[in-house]
Design a protein that fits this description.
Oligomer: single chain
Strand content: 15-25%
Radius of gyration: 13 Å
Order of helices and strands: HEEEHEHH
Number of helices: 4
Largest sheet: 4 strands, mixed
Distance between the termini: 32 Å
Length: 96
């Protein structure tokens, strides 16, 4: 995915799930040779993700995005997520 496309997808998520005065949280996760994943957590608790070629590209994209802050899977970020029943069912099926 190009840097422009990454920025566009992050901005779309912020427009859909952001709130003035509350930054969207972004957690950068390395995923081996496939690159890196930016997990976005909106002000409304929605989760989204954007794939990039590497951790460096992901970190730069987060730093360049408006109303987005770099985060970790800490207590505040985890508490900010709202996982719906559909997602829970999907994850339960993956466990069996």
């Amino acid at each position: 995915m190009s840097d422009q496309t990454t920025q566009k997808r992050i901005a779309e998520f912020v427009r859909a799930h952001g709130k003035p005065g509350t930054a969207v949280r972004a957690v950068v996760e390395p995923i081996g040779r496939a690159g890196a994943r930016i997990v976005l957590v909106g002000a409304d608790g929605a989760m989204g993700d954007v794939m990039t070629k590497d951790v460096e590209s992901a970190t730069k994209a987060v730093e360049a995005a408006d109303n987005v802050e770099q985060s970790e899977w800490d207590r505040e970020t985890t508490a900010a997520t709202k996982i719906g029943s559909g997602h829970r069912r999907k994850m339960a099926k993956m466990q069996s």
